[in-house]
Amino acid sequence: MINSAAILNEREARDAKATLAEIGRALSSELVLESIVAGLPPEVVNGYRRALASQRADLQAHLNAYEAAKGGDYSELKRFAGNDPGVALIVARIARGYSQKDLARRLGLKEQQVQRYEVDRYRSISLSNYRRIAHVLGVRWDVKLSDGATPRLGSGWDFAADVTATDVKKVIKHAKEHNWFKDNASELAGEESHNYLQRYISDHILNYGSPTLLRTGLNIEHSVDDLLLIAWKSRVTRLAEPIIANRKIEYSGLGITWLCELVRLSTHEDGPARARDFLLNHGIVLVIEPQITGLKLDGAAFLVGNTPVVGMTLRRDAIDNFWFTILHELAHVLLHYRTGLSSGFFDDIDNTNVDGIEDEANDFASNLLISNEKWNRSPARISKSADVIEKFARDVGIHPAIVFGRVQKERRDYAIFSNKIGRGLVRKWLLRGQ
Fold it and tell me: 163, exposed or middle or buried, with CB in 10 Å at 0-12, 13-18, 19+?
């Protein structure tokens, strides 16, 4: 499945058409839909059906923009592409009516070289070669200095002007404690470590965009939180990149029956570790990176290329929190792949001041673990007996800590069954060697 980025070549257009056809079959035939959602609760199926309809509309709009650009009207494609200078060259090629082979011939290059440039969105091209291609395509490009009012790009701290040296030291301290830096960089002191971290974050912004978008689902009150968040995301992305490259991961959001098997993994003592391997086999990378002090974050979901990445901090080492958080983030992946995942979702699970998208993810996760139908009919919902609750967990095939956690939340009493939510049983499986 392709993400919310603009469609920029014939291969991506063919993939889009194939995906549209698959989605169309699923939405027009209950039999086909049943085959990709079998065994899941009605609430989950209905949410997924709505997500498919939304994805179809979004994907069709991107395909229409690409086809229109080939016919000479590239206004919509330009809008979808945004301000990326590399993507601007690809849009210009399409608007000119050139194939990759045509452009390669005009540049005196092999077609494969142009293909490599475009796959990388021209990120690794030299300035002289960029200027050469821009000239051939008739693209004007200007370098403008900031007038002081316009935020500058390039510096790792530009997005958070009020960050102090103390704030930066907090991130550097975390980075050194958790082995962010290669070779002897962890031994760097003072200005050297400051500059190293600044490059670390700046490289991430250059490749994956501005952190001004990283606010969905997380209330940010001070600019320092921007620094903590983008630093944390930079690290998770760095850990995910080699996994994606080495495993050649391909994600398909069509077909979610595997969620039933994922939930059943919670019954195993090493369920969290099994979940990480299981998700990798389904094209989703799970990365654990402890939160930086001061960042109230449980989990995140975002894209690295076309690959969904789920990041978790495990700030609460408990079975119930782990399984709800991971399913909440997977809800974002499955429901919002084309409608927000490219910007990302960053979640404090305890935050009750959330929007409709977060409510949707909460409902999806909750019903995956225990369907409303089963929960409303169960005596465990109102029972004071641990035995009754544990029997219900066995009957539905999930870890009892998950049920005890739901009881605590619904009754708004976190003192009851406090020894039953699986404290201290997650980190040991996912933070070994970290």
Answer: buried
